[in-house]
Automatic annotation (TrEMBL):
It holds the Pfam family Transgly_assoc. It is a multi-pass membrane protein. This is GlsB/YeaQ/YmgE family stress response membrane protein. GO terms for cellular component: plasma membrane. It is found in: Cell membrane. The chain crosses the membrane at residues 6-24, 29-47, 59-79. The lineage of its organism: Bacteria, Pseudomonadati, Pseudomonadota, Alphaproteobacteria, Hyphomicrobiales. Its main location: membrane.
Length: 81
């Protein structure tokens, strides 16, 4: 069973916010949610292609969102500089 849309927004926002703190870039609540959700999709594709399995449900989505958000924010930080 997948994560519902409301849960995806909350978890994606949390993942984006945590990644923003780690990387040192913060774009606001809305962008944190967008970055978290896109990051989760990006990390899901990377993990699937590398045959890496993380926890399922909200914990897996949080881990994937955090990893993907860190990747996106790292690239954004490189482009910004």
């Amino acid at each position: 069973m997948g994560v519902g849309w409301i849960a995806a927004i909350i978890i994606g926002g949390l993942a984006g916010w945590l990644a923003g703190i780690l990387i040192g870039l913060r774009f606001g609540v809305f962008m944190n949610i967008v970055i978290g959700i896109i990051g989760a999709l990006l990390a899901n594709a990377i993990f699937d292609s590398a045959n890496i399995h993380v926890a399922s449900g909200w914990l897996g989505y949080l881990v994937q969102g955090f990893v993907g958000s860190c990747i996106l924010l790292f690239v954004a930080k490189l482009v910004r500089n």
